[in-house]
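Human:
If only I could read backbone structure tokens as easily as an amino acid sequence. I am handing you a single protein, as its sequence and its fold in token form. I hope you can help me see how the letters and the tokens relate. Thank you; the sequence and its tokens follow:
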Amino acid sequence: MDKPTQPESVSSVLKVFSILQALGEQKNIGVSELSQRLMMSKATTYRFLQTMKTLGYVTQEEEADRYALTLKLFELGAKSLEYVDLIGLADKEMRFISEQTNEALHLGALDDDSIIYIHKIDSNYSLRMQSRIGRRNPLYSTAIGKVLLAEREQDFIRDTLSRVTFVKHTEKTLENTDQLIAELTLVKEQHYAQDNQEQEPGLRCIATPIYDRFGTVIAGISISLPTIRFDEDRLSYYVGLLHQAGKNVSSQLGFKDYPSL
């Protein structure tokens, strides 16, 4: 019986990674040599190389038929490792806060025009926020979203939100970018953000930022609890726990100038 042929898209992916692997094993290589090594036609090999060159993964020597890898793959790998380190470091801090409060903790990062949860610890209470790792939420109605944007330039904020429709999840949800920018000024000053029933009725969230070694906010860590368990007098206590967690993680990522608590 004949073996089923692979879908063209799968075959293309295999060819791309074969080319990347070959280029990784040799500093630079010509199209003819590469096509022979991979047993692909020269035309096909050239087409893939040109596409990868356009995407920035491959460079071509001027007026030559030789190609080499750029550092773009290294950059992707470094970002991936950074998030692996981030989750591991944040987990320790989140578990400490969980032990002190029994409430839900989330770690979120910027993903295009939304936040994405990359780690969480559930509340020990039966009444708690329902969430999952990989879930996306809006930037404008979440505490983590606000700390991710607070130190960005206004042009970046407006460009990021230009494709976003502000949905009124509750009566307290912000309605437009101008309202959000006005609140972000306060977030930047106080170094924490709140979601006061803006994403879900009856839910309060507080978040603080985490910085990478370059001083860029790469994530936010938050505590979430229902309003019936929220005491305004304990706000400073929650903020203090989150600030210390953000400072500890940021320090271990190489950022030593976390704003004074």
